[in-house]
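Record minuted for completeness.

…
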Amino acid sequence: MTVREIDERGLLSGPHTTERPRTTSTAVYTAYFEAPPDRVFSLCVSRSGLERSMPGGVRVLRWPERGFAEGEVMVLRWRLAGVLPVRWVGVIDSFQDGEHFTDLQLRGLFRYFRHTHVVTPQGTGTAYTDRVEFASRFGAMVDRTLVRFVMNRMFLERLARMRELVRTPG
């Protein structure tokens, strides 16, 4: 399903933008996995891998129909702080099979959110890096303090879950 088709179905109702604001914050998280790069990458692009690695009960409402490729759209839902429902619509805006992909928020919690996943062979395992460029609706000061604190907890928990999942595939 394309971004245009998603918009025609009303999934992008409400505020949305892919335009990068003048001021954003960046967070980078890197972890080493004792698993081959193809296993780590496969976990990242699988529906079950996403659902099982994400903290906070993320549910996939729509997954890329043709698999991961540029222009494919996904829709996720979770509850912020276990209470407030959040719907996130994103598009894959960059994809290189087995190496990296980037998802860009079309609609969601952030004013801007672009997340790049990079898998790099390292020795007998894999270095995995999440690079997140973001801007909340509350300004740079909140982004550098509160939002960064919450994201650090979420991404470090996710990396720990990913480590467990690549250790015990299936």
About this structure: The mean pLDDT is 88.
